[in-house]
C-alpha cells in the first residue's frame, strides 16, 4: 500500500475515533454528554494507538504533518515524500470528520449552542492570547514528537510502542491540552474545520477561520523542534537549526509575555 493511502486510512481512523469521543462529550443527547476532559484525553490516546495498529501491517504511519515534517527536518524522511504523507493525512482528517458528522447526525439539530458544534470538530482556546495559544501548541507537539522518537528508539516490541504512544497522548492532553484543546496535528484540525465549513450542520455558526493557522503553525514548529532536540541532545548530533529554533522560541515566549502583561494592566 502506498504512503498516501496508509496515511489517509490511518488518519481517518484517528480522527473518527478521536472526534467521536469529543463529539459525544460536547453534543447534547449522547451517553457521554457532560463528561469531562479526562474522557476526551483517554479517547484521543486510544485513537492514536488504534490508528497506528490498524495500518501497521502495511507500514508505520505518521498520521500527523508535524511528525512528518519533523522527521524530514532531521533526515529521517525524504522531503520529496512529504507531500504524499501530508496530503493523505489531510484528506484522512476530512474523511474521519465526515464519519463523525454522519454518526451524530440528529445531535447537531438538538444541540443549540453553535460553539459546541464547532468544538466537536476543531480546537479552540479557552482564553484568547495568540502567542500564548501558539506556544501551547508548540509545547504539546514538541512533547509529542520527542516522546514518539524516544519510544521508537528505546522500545523493541511494536505493540508496546503503540500502547506507550497512547499514554503519551493522554499525558499531553491532561498536562498541556486543557487550555487550547491540544491539536498536536494540523490534519486533525484543518481537515475537520473544512468539513464543518462545507457540511450542512444546523445552526453551526462560524468556523472561526481567523484561528485556523494556530493549530497548523504551532504543531509544525513544535514538531520540528522536538525532532531537532531529539537529534541534538539524544543522539548528540547538534546542528545550526536547533539554535535557530531556540532563538525563535525565545521570541515567541517574549511575545506571549508582552501580550499577557499588557492585557493584565
TrEMBL record:
Membrane topology: Multi-pass membrane protein
Main location: membrane
Keywords, comma-separated and alphabetical: Membrane, Transmembrane, Transmembrane helix, Transport
Sequence intervals crossing the membrane: 6-27, 39-62, 82-102, 134-154, 160-184, 211-230, 236-259
GO cellular component: plasma membrane
Pfam families: MIP (PF00230)
SUPFAM superfamilies found in the cross-reference section: Aquaporin-like
GO MF term (any one): glycerol channel activity
PROSITE patterns named among the record's database cross-references: MIP (PS00221)
Annotated localization: Membrane
Annotated family: Belongs to the MIP/aquaporin (TC 1.A.8) family.
Protein name: Aquaporin family protein
Source organism per UniProt: Fervidibacillus halotolerans
UniProt lineage: Bacteria, Bacillati, Bacillota, Bacilli, Bacillales
